[in-house]
């Protein structure tokens, strides 16, 4: 898939708005993201098909779309549907419940994924 196609898909996803808001906060409060201390990749799906990835880089303190930058790897990859991610980011859903229902999949260090709860709690207050 070309970079242009990936950009078009990301613009169609609701998760893009949530990641844009998280990114705004990360740019003004880098310690908020750095507290995570790990690189976490979100693979967003729609109707069961992969659509786009975003990275929360808790080592550098920023968020970006796409795959991890060259020379880095994600310690954990979270796969979740576009709508479920938005509900999670808004605080209307929680990760353990989505995980239990099979709507959220975690590959890698599960303990690192739990660190995201503070980031999403802060996001849901906005």
Automatic annotation (TrEMBL):
<dbReference type="InterPro" id="IPR036527">
    <property type="entry name" value="SCP2_sterol-bd_dom_sf"/>
</dbReference>
<dbReference type="Pfam" id="PF02036">
    <property type="entry name" value="SCP2"/>
</dbReference>
<protein>
    <recommendedName>
        <fullName>SCP2 domain-containing protein</fullName>
    </recommendedName>
</protein>
<dbReference type="GO" id="GO:0005829">
    <property type="term" value="C:cytosol"/>
</dbReference>
<feature type="domain" description="SCP2">
    <location>
        <begin position="19"/>
        <end position="121"/>
    </location>
</feature>
<dbReference type="InterPro" id="IPR003033">
    <property type="entry name" value="SCP2_sterol-bd_dom"/>
</dbReference>
């Amino acid at each position: 898939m070309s970079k242009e196609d990936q950009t078009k898909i990301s613009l169609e996803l609701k998760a893009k708005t949530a990641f844009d808001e998280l990114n705004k906060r990360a740019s003004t409060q880098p310690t908020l993201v750095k507290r995570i201390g790990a690189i976490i990749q979100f693979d967003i799906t729609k109707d069961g098909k992969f659509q786009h990835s975003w990275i929360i880089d808790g080592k550098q303190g920023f968020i970006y779309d796409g795959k991890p930058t060259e020379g880095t790897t994600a310690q954990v990859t979270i796969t979740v549907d576009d709508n479920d991610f938005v509900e999670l980011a808004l605080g209307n859903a929680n990760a353990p419940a989505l995980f239990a229902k099979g709507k959220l999949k975690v590959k890698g260090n599960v303990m690192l994924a739990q660190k995201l709860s503070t980031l999403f709690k802060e996001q849901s207050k906005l």
